[in-house]
Amino acid sequence: MKPLIIAGREFTSRLFLGTGKFSSNAELSAAIQASGTELVTVALRRVEIGKEGQDEDILAAVPAGVKVMLNTSGARTAEDAVRIGKIARAAGYDWIKLEIHPDPNYLLPDPVETYKAAVELVAMGFTVLPYINADPVLAKRLEEAGVAAVMPLGSPIGSNRGIETEAMLRIIIEQSNLPVVVDAGLGLPSHAGHAIELGASAVLVNSAVAAAGDPAAMAGAFAAAVKASEAALTARPAAVLDRACATSPMDSFNAVV
């Protein structure tokens, strides 16, 4: 597979991790380390700039060398998201996961407000990774607007239902000149592996790890699945056929008989 490069930064791990829902900073830190991730997302409202102490500041749980990407979770409009971006910049962060989902029941991203905010944030010099529905047209429009990657959902946030948008994800991956990060709804390591095998550049998981009985062990399992699928693609899988193909040809068997 090609190296994963986003906004000029190369990542060796194709697994990104969200930081919500963990019961403690210690649990979060253990999961980050077990996952091998090099990028985590943090909701700005959970960041306590200037506080000290492992149990007070979520950023204290992020190991050195792991990139922090603040997200705009909670934003309901483009205006909200841009305001959050400005606060993030003042705190020294210029990578933004753009999330705008006004519907509290399904948390589906608003395509109109997301596009508007992306255009403005890109113009302001942010590295923008928008969370979107699996919409190939919107993905291309955002690419044209200058985002660094697109993050289409596999299924609704926190649902753990896996990939329910495969047909549209295939089109997005086929058409994109940017990294495609499958985000939301991945509940099992096999779901993450499937996304990589579809051709996604990376995956982002949160609830499946944070809500597991053993978050660090689950993070490790996701990491293993992503690496296994990446290795399988590098090994060039055998062709998928529409009919059976004998592993031991019958003509060789008949020749022996």
Automatic annotation (TrEMBL):
It comes from the Bacteria. It catalyses: [ThiS sulfur-carrier protein]-C-terminal-Gly-aminoethanethioate + 2-iminoacetate + 1-deoxy-D-xylulose 5-phosphate = [ThiS sulfur-carrier protein]-C-terminal Gly-Gly + 2-[(2R,5Z)-2-carboxy-4-methylthiazol-5(2H)-ylidene]ethyl phosphate + 2 H2O + H(+). Its EC number is 2.8.1.10. One of its GO terms (molecular function) is thiazole synthase activity. Residues 6-249 form the Thiazole synthase ThiG domain. InterPro entries: Aldolase_TIM, Thiazole_synthase_ThiG, ThiG. Catalyzes the rearrangement of 1-deoxy-D-xylulose 5-phosphate (DXP) to produce the thiazole phosphate moiety of thiamine. Sulfur is provided by the thiocarboxylate moiety of the carrier protein ThiS. In vitro, sulfur can be provided by H(2)S. This is thiazole synthase. It comes from Victivallis vadensis.
